[in-house]
Amino acid sequence: MQPTAQGFARSAQKALNDKSLQAALGRTTGRFLDHRAAAVAAFPGFEAARQRASEIKLESLSRLDQYLARFIEEAERKGAVVHVARDAAQAREIGARIAREEGITLSVKSKSMAAEEVSFNAALEAAGVEVVESDLGEYIIQLAGEPPSHIIAPAVHKTREEISRLFERKLGEPRTESIPELVAIARKHLRAKFLGAGMGVSGANFLVADTGSVVLVTNEGNGRMGTVLPRVHLAVAGIEKVIPRMADLPTFLRLLPRSASGQTLSSYTSILTGTRREGDREGPETMHILLLDCGRSAVLEGKYREILKCIRCGACLNTCPVYQSVGGHAYGWVYSGPIGAVLTPLLVGLPEAAPLPDASTLCGACAEVCPVKIPLPDFLLELRSDLRDQGLKTPGEIAGMKGYAGVMKRAGLLEALERVAGLLSQLFTKGKPVEGLPYPFSGWTERRDFPAAAPQPFRKQWKIRRGAGG
Amino acid sequence: MTGVSERHLLFRRLSAALGRHGEPAGAPHPAEPTSSAADADGRNVRFSRALAATGGVVLSGPPEEALSALGETLRAEGVTALFFPPEDGDARRVAEALVPFGPFSLTTGEEVRGGNPAATAGFRTADAGIAETGTVVESSRGGKTLLPGLLSDVHVAILPGSSIVERMDDAFALYADDPPRNISFISGPSKTADIEQTLTVGAHGPKKIIVLLV
Predict the structure, then answer these.
(1) Strand B200-201 vs strand B81-83: parallel, antiparallel, or unpaired?
(2) Alpha helix (H) residue ranges in A174-221
(3) Residue in B with minimal Cα distance to A230
């Protein structure tokens, strides 16, 4: 997928003006947050599992070469063919080659952010394959020709009316206001695709090194259908998805659904190991596993290694005040919210995604909910310094921050400025918030009011109060 | 063989990124502490409660009563055809015993896979149950079919109480040595909330999961 993160400000403005998107976002993120909070409260072991999951992921990453080698060895021993792609172009080339060599004309795909990263569908389509997204949300946005806007709820921005109009136009189905009827329509159309597809493309929530297994977690059951019925199974996954042992899975399964949707466990967890065995009644004859580097080995090397712990639950999106306001599309690539604001610059390059590290209030809510304890706010701050180091900040902003730092380090100067500000505030706005400032400060006051300065500096008030309190 | 050389290059990049070569892998983490008592009766109760929380249904008790309740549920769901793996004796017995309880015909997994449009109930003996999560575990171990839990409108899993384990860890331990191609954890009906965050059952798989505890 081509990143368009540079247009964050414009896209965000558009999202803020979109009334139906705003309603959908409020509803979705609020519900996810409530469900998550209830699930976490009902599970006393949550903190311990979080700590353990973080440690397991760190261990996997610190020996990624070994665990990945083990994974490849085990998967191949069980009949899978493992491919490695350095970048998106190579991933597409491998995907197209597999489709051609296997003689595939119809493929059902379950959700994979990794596949989205490399525009995998486009490659298969160019090779003459009809690719059908089988996750309901993905199916809807595929019909609409749009990118997903939420990691686990890609069609949050669509209302039932819009979806019904889409089904009418694309599938020739009668209009309905009923959500169960809409689901039934999709079920009918997709069932035929599952039964007819030669290949199922999936992502992977986890790759298990000691067994060579691919693990998929879904609620709809599409991941299961697409990996049981078709003749070929192709799994696309980032190299960082590997965990050491099957015995580590319960820890992650206790965290992922609770963090994502507030469920104890999603409806379906599939553990897929190699090809169909002799005597098996179903299962793929051929299994391909496509491992993507696509910038990950470089991230592994640097100070942002821990971002690769991410298990893609989406909790940081739901809890983020910026995401809650602007939704997923504004982030301009596959990943949105705090994880997107960190991961996108690291995978596509900071110049291509320069506005994203600033798309945060640094409130810290994301770090509080992250099930694998990624220090997201620290990384956002760090990326802001990288922006400066790489010459991607304007001289005005650098000068402004320098001035700010200079003042904050000198208590007397700060107090003097506070006095002046207090005086000006009394003079111009009579102690009310400032609604409009001249350029360049208008950038701030266009969308919010600047709080009025207090009539007296803080330090003075402090002295008086302390004096009064003895 | 671009694949081989790309793999080699990847491992070169990884070793460079990690700044070292060939450190031994660490010792496994200790298991998380187990939560509750190992009493079998309590475990079945915990399993039933957890399954109910996912929207699943547990039937137990005298066979005649359970069959009658099951027949009623299937009729209410509009089921007209039943299928089961031919070699699964328990599933066959339950399905065949159900025929008199409704206008049910018997069909096969192959016919359902062929696109038979009848509303079906698929029967299968489960490998295990997990009390922690209310999960039914079904796998392709021993050549068993997954179709009854996959393609049916209502899935009836037959589960011996003795096959219920306490935690997910115990279930994975059943397979860790040599996992079959397909292990499926089923925790409730197929569902989606992709349209307006409204939970709706029957996205792709069964709209209802019924566990017959035997």
Answers:
(1) unpaired
(2) 179-196
(3) B113
* Residue corresponding to tokens 């111009």: A428
> Closest chain A residue to B7 measured between Cα atoms?
A84
Domain holding A253: CATH number?
3.40.50.10420
Question: Are A287 and A151 in a shared domain?
Answer: yes
* pLDDT level of residue B1 (50, 70, 90 thresholds): very low
Listed by number, the residues of chain A in 67-86 with a beta carbon closer than 8 Å to a beta carbon of chain B are 67-70, 72, 82-86
Q: Do A247 and B9 touch (CB under 8 A)?
A: no
Give the angle A344-A349-A351 at the CA atoms, nearest 5°.
110
**B15/A65 touch (CB, cutoff 8 Å), yes or no:** yes
Question: How many helices and strands (H and E) does chain B possess?
Answer: 7, 12
- Work out the minimum CA distance from B22 to partner chain A, whole angstroms: 8
If phi > 0 it is left, if psi is from -120 to 50 it is alpha, else beta; for residue A349 that is left
pTM here is: 0.93
Name the more confident of A150 and B45: B45
* Domain B39-190+202-213 coded CATH 3.40.50.10420: yes
CA–CA distances in Å: residue A457 to residues A58, A322, A419, A460: 47, 31, 6, 5
Distance CA B29, CA B26 (A): 9
| A227 neighbors A284 (Cβ within 8 angstroms) | yes
| Inter-chain touch B14–A63, beta carbons under 8 Å | no
Look up the domain containing A270 and give its range.
43-297
Find the range with the poorest average confidence among A148-152, A191-195, B108-112: A148-152
Last residue of a domain, one of A269, A297, A325: A297
Q: A127-131, A194-198, B23-27, B56-60: which has the minimum mean pLDDT?
A: B23-27
State residue B196 phi and psi, 5-degree precision.
50, 30
Q: Is residue A367 situated within a structural domain? A: no
The answer to whether residue A387 is domain-embedded is no
Within an 8 Å CB–CB cutoff, is residue B23 touching chain A?
yes
Query: Quick check: is A4 in a domain?
Result: no
> B72 by DSSP, 3-state: which?
helix
More confident residue, B36 or A360: A360
pLDDT tens by residue, B150-167: 999 999 999 999 999 999
User: Can you give the pLDDT at residue B31?
Assistant: 57
* Cα–Cα distance, A445 to A453 (Å, whole number): 15
Task: Give the residue from A292, A258, A248, A229 showing the smallest Cα distance to A35.
Answer: A258
- A449's CB contacts (< 8 A; 6+ apart) are A433, A434, A435
- Number of domains chain A is built from: 2
Q: Rounded mean pLDDT of A51-67?
A: 96
**If you measure CA to CA, which chain A residue comes closest to B138?**
A270
Residue owning tokens 């959500």: A179
Q: Which of A80, A74, A66 is nearest to A210 (CA)?
A: A74
Q: Do A277 and B143 touch (CB under 8 A)?
A: yes
What DSSP assignment string belongs to A243-308?
ES-GGGHHHHHHHHHHHHTS-SS-SEEEEEESSPPTT-SSS-SEEEEEEE-TTHHHHHHSTTGGGG
Q: Which is nearest to B162 in space by CA: B208, B127, B207?
A: B127
Using an 8 Å CB-CB cutoff, list chain B residues near A247: 28, 31, 169, 172-173, 176
Residue A344 lies in a domain: no
Chain A residues inside the 8 Å CB shell of B6: 83-86, 90
Among the candidates A270, A297, A324, a domain finishes at: A297
Contact A301 B186 (CB under 8 A): no
pLDDT in tens, A65-106: 999 999 999 999 999 999 999 999 999 999 999 999 999 999
Give which of B120, B182, B199, B208 to mutate to test A binding, by max A Cβ within 10 Å: B182
Residue ranges per structural domain of chain B: 39-190+202-213
Q: Distance from A8 to chain B by nearest Cα, in Å?
A: 25
